[in-house]
Amino acid sequence: MTIRVATSLLPFRHGTFQAPFVNQLIGMHVRDIMTVKVHTCTAESTTPELMKMMTEHRIRHVPVVDKDGILISIVSIGDIVKSRVGEMESENQALRDYVTTG
């Protein structure tokens, strides 16, 4: 569960969270709200594989692990979008060059 999901479940009135629910959150530990089944990828995973995983599991961040399962990075949906935009811009420029130079 993300913090956004957790806070969206709380009553919000007059610009503040209601005290009983805030007190309940204060007493919680990360283990009480964390995701237990974490989906990971490796540095060799492809962008389409990652996009599929993120879409199917409705996740926005994926830990990147090495062969021993040690965390080496985290990739976000923003990283994927930025990469795809860059690829599309390169393809677009290549097509423009082809059309103008023949």
Explain this structure:
This protein is α+β, with helices and mostly antiparallel strands. 53% of the residues lie in helices and 15% in strands. The protein has five helices and four strands. The protein has helices at residues 3-8, 19-26, 30-33, 47-57, 77-101; strands at 12-13, 16-17, 61-65, 71-76. Strand 3 and strand 4 form a beta hairpin. Helix 4 packs across helix 5 (77-101).
How many β-strand stretches?
4
The total of helices stands at: 5
- The chain-level structural class is alpha+beta
Query: What is the name of the CATH architecture of the largest domain?
Result: Roll
The first-level CATH class of the largest domain is given as Alpha Beta
Poorly predicted runs are none
The SSE string, one letter per element, is HEEHHHEEH
Tally of discrete structural domains = 2
**CATH homologous superfamily name of the largest domain?**
CBS-domain
| CATH topology-level fold name of the largest domain | CBS-domain
Distance between termini? 53 Å
Question: What key attributes describe this structure?
Answer:
two-stranded antiparallel ribbon, 2 domains, 4 strands, 102 residues, CBS-domain, alpha+beta, single chain, elongated
